[in-house]
Write a structure and sequence with these properties.
globular
Length: 411
């Protein structure tokens, strides 16, 4: 199951970063300015954000088998249709629908983790899943640059859409929502999973989520606020890092692709390290600290790295510090999603989707803030200082989050 969600995370970020790599040929072909390309990149995040909570609710109600199959098929279709865009309006429509389709990916994974993964292993599983996304994006940068030279940007989107549809077919045929329904599970393993998850602690499955209570929950807002900061830092790598490096350091596409992939590799390492740290501290009977400590360390590294990168005149040291920032930002993912499963329980899909909604409002703002702030100030420095400030605020938010206290969000 974890291998399947790892591959899915690779596909998610692979498809998501395509437009960043294809920025120059798309802009040239459709005659778009940098600000218009900023809207094309950010509109994905808006669609992704707005459909997070509904997608999570559907994952809770219908199960991750059906929902993940459906959403992967949907966004893969719109990935392919991106290659058919002929002006800004059609590009915005397709990218918005692409984002809406992708909205169910990680909430669906969270719901699968709730049913399948013991508490003491959720940190590393979340780390593995999110590292898959970073590896996929890092792999995409040079590969997509080469593929576009080979077949053009339009056909590149079509090819990548087909890969997602193939994953959806395999997942639907193989996966089951509950371990006890899978033919390859032994009785001993099913018993172990039941004893080491918190499924037995949940209330009646007939109870329904009260969204009024969800959005009045202070703890929910704390989770949303810190995740907005995390995504604000990371989404820069998926949108403007590649074109930023090309312009500032006068690189060709392949060089920029390799340099821009380094922070994503460090992001994968940050996910693995954080996932290990979450589970290590949890096994020391420190449930709350197992979520807080990795997140706080991560946000501190993100703040320091992003500010230090501003003062680097050469591409290599700049990328080193941006890599440290992304390592830190990605350290926050495993504790964030583990905390959502902790406090959401049988509603973990809706809770994680709501947190991810706020995070991707941060992504939406990032894709617009960089070109607009650059245009207004003539420098990228204000953007990087804003990102660092948000990361510092997130540290204080984590000090108030209580992962051991379930959300009272039922009717």
């Amino acid at each position: 199951m974890v291998f399947g969600t790892f591959i899915l995370a690779m596909i998610v970020l692979f498809d998501r970063i395509l437009l960043s790599v294809a920025k120059d040929p798309v802009a040239e072909s459709l005659q778009l300015t940098d600000k218009q390309m900023g809207w094309a990149m950010s509109i994905f995040a808006l669609g992704y954000a707005l459909f997070q909570t509904p997608a999570g609710l559907f994952a809770d109600k219908y199960g991750p088998r059906k929902i993940l199959t459906a959403v992967v098929g949907l966004w893969s279709l719109f990935t392919a249709l991106t290659g058919a865009a002929w002006n800004l309006i059609t590009l915005l429509i397709v990218r918005f629908l692409f984002g809406a389709g992708e909205a169910g990916a990680f909430p669906g994974m969270a719901r699968a983790i709730y049913s399948w993964i013991p508490l003491q292993e959720r940190g590393i599983v979340n780390g593995i899943n999110f590292s898959g996304g970073r590896i996929g994006a890092a792999f995409a940068l040079p590969v997509v640059a080469y593929l576009m030279d080979l077949v053009g940007w339009r056909m590149t989107f079509v090819i990548l859409g087909g890969i997602g549809i193939l994953w959806g077919l395999v997942w639907f045929l193989w996966f089951r929502d509950n371990p006890e329904d899978h033919h390859s599970m032994s009785a001993a393993e099913i018993k172990y999973i039941k004893e080491h998850t918190n499924r037995s602690e949940t209330k009646s499955e007939k109870e329904k989520i009260d969204f009024g209570k969800l959005f009045r929950s202070g703890q929910m807002w704390l989770l949303m606020g810190q995740y907005l900061a995390s995504n604000f830092t990371f989404f820069f790598c998926l949108t403007w890092l590649f074109p930023h490096l090309r312009v500032k350091y006068n690189l060709d596409a392949l060089e920029a692709g390799f340099f821009a992939s380094a922070p994503l590799i460090f992001g994968a390492l940050g996910n693995w390290f954080s996932g290990f740290l979450v589970d290590f501290i949890f096994k020391k009977k420190k449930w709350g600290l197992s979520r807080k400590i990795p997140a706080i360390i991560g946000f501190l590294l993100a703040s320091v790295g992003i500010v230090a990168s501003v003062y680097m005149e050469e591409v290599t040291p700049a990328i080193i510090f941006i890599s440290i920032a992304v390592f830190g930002a990605d350290m926050t993912l495993s504790p964030s999603w583990s905390a959502c499963v902790d406090v959401g329980k049988e509603f973990s899909g809706a809770v994680s989707g709501t947190m991810n909604m706020a995070g991707n409002i941060g992504s939406f703002l990032t894709a617009l803030a960089f070109p607009y702030m650059l245009d207004m100030t003539g420098s990228e420095e204000p953007f990087f200082f804003l990102a660092a400030s948000l990361n510092m605020i997130a540290i204080f938010l984590w000090l108030m989050i209580e992962p051991k206290r379930p959300l009272a969000i039922t009717r």
